[in-house]
Q: What sequence folds into this?
């Protein structure tokens, strides 16, 4: 029997894969514990700069908690589905193909960015079974797409096609079927090439400032920005020397 969660290093990225395609990559208690282990392994690895979260196969990213084994899923401090109440210190990308529903959409929203294959479907399907969103969905989804759209999805549980998910900002990029993981890894490598301390500081400021009053957010930005001023000065000198011009980036 293959491992239900796979951890792999590829380049500067770590790939964490839910490996239960026969169950649409649904998460039971054992899988949740292994996801948490994988997250901690990523955080402890200084050479792993970006975490790519995905599901095995093309049918499903994750269908959420395994309702056939719901008694094994505990409301742990770190989050029922493994690590959903924790905040990664480094960038995270969801590589989505197929069904990304119930707890699956909550896992995808936990990530900073979402790359989705054509034909993918999102949705808060737990609404149909009376299961609450307790893996961050009620908090992260509104921050990503706005409160009005989030409330509609949370309350109706309707399917959200990938094209609409992209239009409202839930999905950052749509790729051809079978290209979701490759594109996520390409993006991870592109991010890793940027000056790292300032990327981490800007990411942390954006996350910490989300939802707080503007003056508090500006204070967070200033504090984190000051901590990387030496890196900024070196970057400014490289730019003055001709590096990074003409808008080149990811």
A:
């Amino acid at each position: 029997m293959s491992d239900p969660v796979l951890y792999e290093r590829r380049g500067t990225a770590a790939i964490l894969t839910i490996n239960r395609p026969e169950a649409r990559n649904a998460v039971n208690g054992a899988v949740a514990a292994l996801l948490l282990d994988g997250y901690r392994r990523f955080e402890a690895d200084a050479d792993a700069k970006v975490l790519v979260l995905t599901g095995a196969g093309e049918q499903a990213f994750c269908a959420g908690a395994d309702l056939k084994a719901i008694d094994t899923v505990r409301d742990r401090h770190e989050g029922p589905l493994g690590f959903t109440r924790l905040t990664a210190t480094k960038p995270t990308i969801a590589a989505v193909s197929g069904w990304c529903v119930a707890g699956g959409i909550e896992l995808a929203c936990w990530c900073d960015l979402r790359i989705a294959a054509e034909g993918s479907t999102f949705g808060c399907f737990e609404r149909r079974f009376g299961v609450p969103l307790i893996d961050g969905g009620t908090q992260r989804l509104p921050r990503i797409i706005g409160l009005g759209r989030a409330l509609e999805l949370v309350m109706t549980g309707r399917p959200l096609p990938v094209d609409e998910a992209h239009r409202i900002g839930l999905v950052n990029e749509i790729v051809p079927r079978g290209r979701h993981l490759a594109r996520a890894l390409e993006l991870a490598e592109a991010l890793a090439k940027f000056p790292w301390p300032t990327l981490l500081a800007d990411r942390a400021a954006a996350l910490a400032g989300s939802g707080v009053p503007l003056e508090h957010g500006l204070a967070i930005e200033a504090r984190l920005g000051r901590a990387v001023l030496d890196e900024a000065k070196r970057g400014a000198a490289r730019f003055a020397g001709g590096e990074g011009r003409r808008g080149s980036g990811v």
Q: What stands out?
A: The longest helix spans residues 29-44.
